[in-house]
Amino acid sequence: MGVRYNAEKKKIGAYYSTPIFSFRCKCHLCDGWFEIQTDPKNTRYVVTSGARQKDEDWNPEDNGGFAIHDTDKESVTIDPLVALEKTTDAKNHMEKVQRPRIESLQDASEHYNADPYSLSLKARKRFREEKKVEQKKRKSDDLLKGRYGLPETLKLLEEDEKGIEEAKVEWEQAKQEQMRASKRKKTTLAITSIPSASSKGSGSSSLNSLRTRILQNTAKKSAAVQSISTPSLARQKQSG
User: Residue 77 CB: number of other CB atoms within 10 A?
Assistant: First the structure.
């Protein structure tokens, strides 16, 4: 980790159009000042006063690494046969692949740019037809959404023969299932509406018992009323 300094930056000159700057800093270990200047010509920094420059070269090969830049290219011997083979392969690739491709692109460009007016007419005609079809489809979709109360942001699928056939098959299956369900419901209602013999007998016996109880209650009430009214009539006769 290095040390960060607060420096006084000044422009002291220029190298062609590149400015030269000086940085005056105070040492963090003492009260001394040192100055550093940029050197655009040699692409480096120069210590001008107050300090001494320390050069440290780091070689990656000495530290278990590999050389990043090959600075000694001139010492590498080039095999002339390898260079000739590379040149021949590049030439064959140019003649067999790149040149025919360029020629085909030029022919296509000349074909499409030969009569731009007629090509523009064809393109605009096709665009108008596609626009009419799109507007018709959008109108039918809006009517369908308004009829069934669907949200406007819902995107409907495009109709095709396969989708129409699948929708028809599903519609027929759902219709048949609904008819079978209605038939089962009618059969169940018919079965529950027909009373059995035992239910008739039990219903008649319960009806008779209810009738008997009503008659008994009525008889008791009438007897109680007569017993209450008889003494009152006797008092009225005596008073008369």
Answer: 6
